[in-house]
Each structure stands twice: as C-alpha cells, then as structure tokens.
C-alpha cells in the first residue's frame, strides 16, 4: 500500500518515481505557476509534471527554486517531468527542444522526458530521447497519449522500451486493455486529468463512497488510481486543494468498492482521442 507522498514506484531502469505529483496543465506562467509549485514542494510533493506546450516552464522552474529554498531539499530530492511537443519531433529539433526546456526550467537535467503525442516523426523523436538518455542527460524517458498501435509501431525500431506512458485515465476512462499491455511490457501507467477536469466530482457513486470513507470525491478517485498501480498528477493552484488532494494515505478502498468505481467506465474522454487527434494541421 502506498503510504506517503514520498513513496515511489521503480521504473524498469531502476529509477524511482513518486506515485503522486502535481500537474500544471492550464496553470498560468508567472505567479500562478510559481506559487502552486512552491506550495506543493512545501507540502511534501516531490514530483512536478509540466510540458513545453503548457508555456509555463519558467514559472515552474522558479517555483522549484523557491520550494527548494523553503524546505532545504536538494534538486535530487525532486522528480521533474516535461514533454516534447509534436512540432519538435525531428531528431535535431527534439534534441534542441530538450535543451530549451532545461533552459526555461533552469535545470541541468530532467528525471523524465516524454513524447507528448504519437504524431508526425515520433519515432525519430524517440531516437533523440534515446540519445539523450544514453548520454546521461535524462534519468528516464517515456511517452504520453500512446495507444497500443502506437506503442507497437515505436517498439519495432526502439532500442529502449519507454519507462512510462502518461494517458488520460479516470473512472469514466479506465483503458483496461492499454493498462494491461503496459503492465506486461513493464511500462509504468500514469494518469493525466485523473478527476476528468472536475466532471467526476458530482458522480453519485463516488459521492456515496466519499461519505462512506469520510473523504472528498477527489480523494476517492486519486486513491483508486494508486490502488490500481497508476501514478497520478492532479492539477491545482490552491494551497488547500493541493493539500487535500494529497491527503489520501491514511485509508484504503475495499476490493468491493474498487470494483464499483471500475464499473463507472464509459470509455468517455475529456481530452482528444490519440487515434484521431492531429495537432500538426
């Protein structure tokens, strides 16, 4: 059982990745990003997830520096993720994109770097990530929004199996086949939009369970993620919500109640479908 914010899963290359972190999708660069990241680190979070396309890496980097200063932690205590965008997946472009992300973040390395979507020259982009990884510039590499077909295509030519696949995952989209596939390949499954951007907070079954366990609906969902072996990175900019989201280590959902949550699946997305999305148009 995952017992604290600092608990980790071990990726297939031996790197430890926190089970729980802060996502910053749609967090404004500047004060909003700085304060959310700083607050999360002060509250015990060790994992921060951003992306080049979020346009907030500078603020995230500043928040990291302020969080470290406030806690006395060192950079090595944190696990920082960013992602390369689909327009930068040509080999040289991906290498340059990595350097640009590091510069914006003010960091010397990333713990995890992901290909954001399986579009365009993603296999070439993967080769660039492998190069950076083999050179010791990144501790782990992975993908985001890859379906089984994309994974199979990538693995035909890949030297290194991705360590992580970050996908939309919540009780309305359990992705059981993809999850099982990743588990079989020893690829850590990670959830983005675990609360379905707030849509799930009024779901009656989840509200019932929240009352039963004396927790919030969000806490029930995030605990369900962890008990399913899924790393999760809920987004929040409010200190109280950042704290509440992380207050999920003092209870366990029963197998019967886990099954009730599993049964809420509708294969329904809040974000684009990786099979049909095209950001290159």
Automatic annotation (TrEMBL):
The record marks 83 as: Lowers pKa of active site Tyr. The keyword Oxidoreductase applies. One of its GO terms (molecular function) is oxidoreductase activity, acting on the CH-OH group of donors, NAD or NADP as acceptor. Keywords: NADP, Oxidoreductase. Residues 28-265 form the NADP-dependent oxidoreductase domain. Substrate binds at residue 116. The keyword Lipid biosynthesis does not apply. The active site is at 54 (proton donor). Belongs to the aldo/keto reductase family. PANTHER family: 2,5-DIKETO-D-GLUCONIC ACID REDUCTASE, NADP-DEPENDENT OXIDOREDUCTASE DOMAIN-CONTAINING PROTEIN. This is Aldo/keto reductase. It comes from Paenibacillus albiflavus.
């Amino acid at each position: 059982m995952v017992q604290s914010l600092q608990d980790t899963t071990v990726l297939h290359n031996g790197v430890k990745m926190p089970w729980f972190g802060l996502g910053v999708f749609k967090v404004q660069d500047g004060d909003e990003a700085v304060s959310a990241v700083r607050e999360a680190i002060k509250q015990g979070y060790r994992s921060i997830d951003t992306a080049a396309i979020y346009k907030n890496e500078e603020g995230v980097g500043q928040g990291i520096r302020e969080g470290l200063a406030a806690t006395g932690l060192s950079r090595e205590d944190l696990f920082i993720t960013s992602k390369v965008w689909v327009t930068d997946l040509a080999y040289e472009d991906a290498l340059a994109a990595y350097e640009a992300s590091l510069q914006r973040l003010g960091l010397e390395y990333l713990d995890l770097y992901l290909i954001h979507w399986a579009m365009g020259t993603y296999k070439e982009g993967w080769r660039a990530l492998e190069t950076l990884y083999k050179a010791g510039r990144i501790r782990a590499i992975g993908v985001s929004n890859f379906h089984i077909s994309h994974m199979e295509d990538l693995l035909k030519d890949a030297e290194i199996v991705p360590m992580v696949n970050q996908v939309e995952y919540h009780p309305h989209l359990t992705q059981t086949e993809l999850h099982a596939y990743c588990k079989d390949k020893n690829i850590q499954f990670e959830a983005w939009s675990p609360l379905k951007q707030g849509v799930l907070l009024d779901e009656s079954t989840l509200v019932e369970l929240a009352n039963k366990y004396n927790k919030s609906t969000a806490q029930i969902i995030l605990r369900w993620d962890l008990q399913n072996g899924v790393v999760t990175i809920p987004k929040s900019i409010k200190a109280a919500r950042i704290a509440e989201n992380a207050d999920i280590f003092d209870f366990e959902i029963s197998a019967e109640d886990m099954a009730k949550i599993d049964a809420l699946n509708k294969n329904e997305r809040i974000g684009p479908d990786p099979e049909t999305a095209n950001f290159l148009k």
